[in-house]
Amino acid sequence: MEHQGNKKAAHAFAVAFADSLSAALSSSIGSPWPLEALDGLQPPTTKETPLHFRLTADGALQGDCFVEFYRDQASNLIAKIRKQPAEPLTPEHTEELANIVSAAMQALAQSLLDDYGKVTFKVDSVAELAFGGMFVVPLVASGDLAGPPVLLYFDGKLLDTLSSAPNKAARDEAEGRGIHTHNLKMVMDVELNVSLRFGKRQLPLREVLELSSGSVIELDRLVDEPVDLYLDGKLIARGEAVIVDGNYGLRVTEIPQPVASHFLG
């Protein structure tokens, strides 16, 4: 069961990595270079010489993964980027490809933020690696750059943190309140009525009937206590009352719970 959870978490990471690397390479090449993370398929064997980059995760995720290109494949990529014929791979070419992978990892870190929290990646070029027993996900390119897959290897530490990290989607599902952001986007421009509550007071009917112009009602809140912001009868924020262009306003100092949770059934 644990192995299946690791496999699922690694594949989800590989899909996000493939999207980020594809975008970075496509931007550098100037034309689309889609990558697809395969699921449950063994990578083909090849005798081509590999080129490896180590991706070290720190923060919400911990551990290493390794991305494997083949030298001829990397040479063709650099040729496409430079708009020139392919030539034998040089250290300068390797550094150029490492910079593209680094840009992809920055985008990947941003895409993982909601699910895992803040994570950073360090990219190093490494050599003479042995991957016996490591979990691997092949990333297959299509189009005129199709060829041997890009391989993504996971060490045990990264697999463990991927499967055990407090994934936001899993937490929401466990709590029965998954947030479907694509649905929320459809109603982002809908205007809602919010109201400020400075306090309250219970009055007997007799005093209510005796109210007249000039009457003063003492509320149950001191002047230096925060006021409440309500949406449809639900408290969504607290803060300090301010004056903005002659109108009352609220400087928010506290949000008791995520505002999005008020929209979930």
Topology:
Blueprint: H1 2-29, E1 35-37, E2 50-59, E3 63-70, H2 71-82, H3 91-116, E4 119-126, E5 135-141, E6 150-154, H4 156-164, H5 168-174, H6 181-184, E7 194-197, H7 205-209, E8 227-231, E9 234-244, E10 247-254
Antiparallel strand pairs: 1-5, 2-3, 2-4, 3-6, 5-6, 7-8, 8-9, 9-10
**What's the CATH H-level superfamily name of the largest domain?**
CheC-like
Mean pLDDT: 81
Q: What low-confidence regions span 5 or more consecutive residues with pLDDT below 50? A: 168-179
Number of domains: 2
Largest sheet: 6 strands, antiparallel
Any idea what the radius of gyration is?
Answer: 28 Å
| CATH classification class of the largest domain | Alpha Beta
Ends apart, CA distance between termini: 31 Å
Q: How many H/I helical runs?
A: 7
The run of helices and strands is: HEEEHHEEEHHHEHEEE
Number of extended strands: 10
Strand order of the largest sheet: 1-5-6-3-2-4
3D shape: elongated
Helix content: 25-40%
CATH-defined fold name of the largest domain: Chemotaxis protein chec
CATH architecture of the largest domain: 3-Layer(aba) Sandwich
Instruction: Provide the β-strand percentage band.
Output: 25-35%
Query: Which secondary-structure class do the elements indicate?
Result: alpha+beta
